[in-house]
Amino acid sequence: STPVHSDTSPMTLTRYMIQVAMDNTDLEHMQDMQSLMSSIQLACKKIASLVQRAGITNLTGYEDSGSINVQGEEQKKLDVLSNEVLKNALRYSGKMGVIASEEEDEPVMVDEVYSGNYVAVFDPLDGSSNIDAGIATGTIFGIFVQNTGCLASDWESKIDETELTCLYNTMQPGANLVAAGYCMYSSSVMMVLTTGHGVNGFTLDPQIGEFVLTHPQITIPSRGKIYSFNEANSPQWDPVLRDYVEKLKTGDNRAGVKYSSRYIGSLVADVHRTLLYGGVFGYPGDQKNPNGKLRLLYECAPMSFIVEQAGGIATTGKERVMDVIPDAVHQRMPLIIGSKDDVQELLDMYAGDK
Ligand code: AHG
Ligand code: MN
Ligand code: MN
Ligand code: MN
């Protein structure tokens, strides 16, 4: 049952997490999720304020050092800053054992004092190429339980035990996620979260500085009228995908509808719109980049968990994203995600059904 929100007792994210934990004492991890989410939401409020004032505080643009991250991307000042903010918030939650970030070459072991038995994977600032133009960006996070069964002997490589434990604990399939969410920094600041029991959306109320439940039990429409791809890459797409998008343009599809195109260039914003309005988002592999651009661990898997929990589909084009076991922390993975009927139509075309 979704707790009720009223003016005199706003259903804040904090209260929601307490209530869900109290109402579902059988659900393991909910007590820990409660304190984890208070750390994560604090970090996201801080990142929201950094993003909204970037132009005023000279925090737009690239890192002065010209640093290149492990992805080969030139880091924005806010990529680095938001990474520090989130790392510290998670470290001092006392629940975290290991954290992996887009902006960290290797996973980071949280020092003993504060160590807990969860693993966080995150993209501290998604869509950071949009930051200087004041266009929507976001933070994406996923939470796993730490694999205590990691034996150094399981691995051939010679890196030391700590590193092994660290690495092993981050490379889990999306199906192991116990929680996933994103915070979108746009015309409103929205936190969308799942702990495996549906998806809920909270909007930051600047008057009280709290995320308030505004979108209880989000379900994605079974079909939409919007497709969202970077069509500049379409000459390199496989012919089936080109044909599928062509059919969305002409109306020659199962819905008999001519679609519109929307592409913001921030995964968080494009997926959030797809979640609420329906339709399909894709960053497919192509001839140049067979694994596409998005990172499996902290972009594709958390987003797939959320969209599946809302009744949608998330596929690599060949298999369910959440079944893929990463073999590298920053591994890229093709992603086609959105409304059940939209994505199923593409999958059926790949299977040769008309
Ligand atoms: P990030 O800013 O975290 O590196 O992610 C950027 C990603 C994702 O947000 C977006 O969907 C995609 O890059 C856009 O890529 P293109 O600019 O190649 O379309
Ligand atoms: Mn990046
Ligand atoms: Mn990203
Ligand atoms: Mn990023």
From TrEMBL:
Residues covered by the Fructose-1-6-bisphosphatase class I N-terminal domain: 11-216
Record-listed E.C. numbers: 3.1.3.11
GO MF annotation list: fructose 1,6-bisphosphate 1-phosphatase activity; metal ion binding
GO biological process entries: fructose 1,6-bisphosphate metabolic process; fructose 6-phosphate metabolic process; fructose metabolic process; gluconeogenesis; sucrose biosynthetic process
Metabolic or biological pathway: Carbohydrate biosynthesis
Cellular component GO terms held in the UniProt record: cytosol
Keywords annotated in UniProt: Carbohydrate metabolism, Hydrolase, Magnesium, Metal-binding
SUPFAM superfamilies reported in the protein's UniProt record: Carbohydrate phosphatase
Cofactor: Mg(2+)
Reaction(s) catalysed (UniProt annotation): beta-D-fructose 1,6-bisphosphate + H2O = beta-D-fructose 6-phosphate + phosphate
Pfam family membership, one: FBPase_C
Record text on subunit structure and interactions: Homotetramer.
NCBIfam families: PRK09293.1-1
Name of the protein: fructose-bisphosphatase
Organism: Gracilariopsis chorda
